[in-house]
User: What shape does this take?
Amino acid sequence: MNLTLRIWRQRSPEDAGVMTTYEVSGISEDMSFLEMLDHLNEELILAGDEPVAFDHDCREGICGACGMVINGRAHGPERTTTCQLHMRHFSDGDTIDIEPWRAAAFPVVKDLVVDRSAFDRVIGAGGYVSVPTGSAPEAHAAPVPKPVADLAFEHAECIGCGACVAACPNGSAMLFTSAKVVHLNVLPQGAPERESRVLDMVGAMDDQGFGGCTNTGECATACPKGIPLQSIATMNREYLRATLKGAGRRR
Amino acid sequence: MALATRTAKPPSLIGSVWRSTVGKKAVMAVTGLIMLAYLVAHMLGNLKVFFGAGEFNHYAAWIRTIGEPFLHHEWFLWLARVALSAAVVLHGVAAYQLSRRDLAARPVKYRGRGRRRASYATRTMRWGGVILGLFIVWHILDLTTLTVNPNAQEGRTYENLVASFDRWYVSAFYIAAMLALGLHIRHGFWSAAQTLGVGSPRRDRLLKALANGLAALLTCGFIAVPVGVLTGVVS
Assistant: This one.
C-alpha cells in the first residue's frame, strides 16, 4: 500500500519543529507501524536524509518505550502499543499524522522522542516497597487474597508508556500515578508506606508540571494495558484518607 | 531505612490540601455538593409559585424566620448566604487555578483529529461555570436585591418574579442558564464522586444515573417557573 505520512520533525529540544510530509510505497499490511517507519528511515538514509527518531525497544508491547500520537490518538486507532499496531488497520492512500506525546512534563528530545523521566521521578517518590535485606522471605508468609492479587496485578500491568498523559487534555499523569499507588497500596507488602506513598507520589506528580484530573476519561481509553479509570477514584480516596490521618506526622 | 529520619514540621492540613491538585479538586467537589444540596432545596421551594401569590409570599417570609427564636430574624438566611458565597468563591478560585495549570501542562495541540471520548457536558465545564457565575450575579440583582427588577417591591416576591419573567428575553436567558446548569451537574456530580473516592466499578452506573437524574430534575424544576409565567399558569 502507498501512504502519505505527515511527521513531526524537530532537530533538538530548542528547535521549533515542523510537520513534514513523506510518501512511502510498498508497505505490506502485515508490517507493524514501527516497521513501516523503519522502511521510511531506510529510504531516508539512502537518500542522504536524517532518519526519523522514535523510541522503541522490545517491540512486543511490554516495555512501554514506543509511543507516538497517530492521527490524534495515542498509539493510534487500536487499543495497543504502537509496535503492536499493524498496517492492516490503515487503507491504501491514507494520510497519517504522526506526532510526539504533547505535554509540558514530556519535552521533545528529537522528532518523536520525548523525555519521560518525569515518570521516573514520580516512581522514585514512592513507587516501591521497603524490604529488609537478607534472605528472601517465605512466599506464603504474607497471605494475599485472590481478588486483591488480581486487582494489584491489573494495575501492575502499567508499562509507563505515557499514553495517558498524551491523551489527557490537561497533560495529567493521574492514571499512571494511580496505577502504581493502587498496585502497591492494596498489597500487604505495600501497607507500611500506604499513606506516605500516595502523598509523596501525588506531590511529585504535581511538582513535575503535570495537569490535574477533570475526569474526561481520555486516559483510560488510550491506555494500551487497560488500566481502569476507577483507579483514579481509588487514588483520590487513598490521598484523602492519608491526608485526614495526618500522615505528615507519620512520615 | 530512611523512613524515621524526617523531622521536618508536618505541613498544615489546609495548606497541603490546597497546594495539591487532588486536594484542590476535593475542595471543588465538596463546595459543588454544598451548592447542589442548596439548589435542590431552592428548586423545591420555587415550585410553591404554582400555589399562588399568598402561599409563595408566605414561604418567602418563612425563610426569614427559620431558627427563631434561637436565631434572630433573618440570621439563618445570612448564615446560608455567607456559606454559599464562600462555596462559590472557593469553587471558582480552585477551578481557575486548576484550569491555568491544566492549560500550561498541555501547551501544544495535536494536528491530527482523534475521536474524543469526553461528552459535551465534560468539555463545557469551564465556560459553563463562567456562564453560571455571571447568571448568579444577574439572578441576585434581579430577585434578591431587586436592583434590576421591574416591580421591585420588598416582600412581594411573587409579583417581582412574575414581572421579571413576563419579559420573554429574561425567561429565555434563565432557561438557557438552567440548561447550562444541567450540563454542569451532569458531569460535576459524577466527577465529584470520583474526586472524593466514592466511585468504584460496582457503583459507577448508579452514580452516573444519579448525576443524570439530578441534572434532569433540577433543570426541569427550575425551568417550570418561567414556563409557567410565559404560559399564563402563573400570573
Summary: The first strand of chain A starts at residue 3 and ends at 9. Chain A touches chain B through 56 residues (CB under 8 Å). The mean pLDDT of chain A is 94. Chain A has two domains: 3-109, 117-250.
